User: Fold this.
Amino acid sequence: MADLTAIILTKNESKNIVDCIESIKGLAKRIVVVDSGSTDDTVELAIKYGAEVFSHPFENYARQFNWAIDNTRIDTKWTLRLDADERFTPELCARIEKECALHAEDDVNGFTLAAWLYFMGKRLTYGGARKRKLMVFKTGIGRIEDRKMDEHTILSEGTSIEIEERFLHYDFKDLTTYVKKLNWYATREMQDYFAGLFPDQSFEASNEKISKIRNKKTKYYKAPMFLRCWIFFLYAYLLKGNFLNGKEGFIYSFLYHFYYRMLVDMKIYEQMKTNAPFEETGDLK
Assistant:
């Protein structure tokens, strides 16, 4: 077991929370769940399976997670950022435990991982790594940057390393929920766009990889509105090989690489025309 506290943010995650907690029980010394008003039995299940539960209203992911860092009395050497629909494999747990011990006293202060994405029950094997993020960091050194979308863990000092073993991401409950989530995401990205967060040059050299990701998004937004989503979809589906994932790969690519990106453009265009006050995004209803 590592000297590590896992933080999991929840809202109506009864379908996922048990498997999530069980996947890291042998790794995390302490498991903290911060719930934002679940109306199902998420809280009861989290307590039953050994987590400490805190409640806090949701503004956005970054502020919720940073609230957890500041208010849940974390005293372990390491902190893990984990979503309820994510799982660690036994092999990954063993690797993280080893790396935590190995780098306890040096300047390696974070570990970056990539996911195997499961969509509609199928692992999307082709098309490249999914959801690469810095998930484990030394307590007091890592925080989530304050933005509504595309938020990353930022280290105040030191470096990070990449872990080869992947975690599992079950990013699907049903199509209705998934489409609602994409609409929610699109509003938040539109607001970040008008807040001037693309382009973003605010990162120091220690966050060079994040800067590269942002630079790609900057280039994307320089392409013509409504055309860029077609280019992105064809690139992801055909050139990156998502078509090899079968029907599930097509549905995923169509919704995420085309529909979502088109929806962001539509919301940007609507905002340009109306200049309406931004709505409070809050949590996903």
The first helix runs from residue 17 to 24.
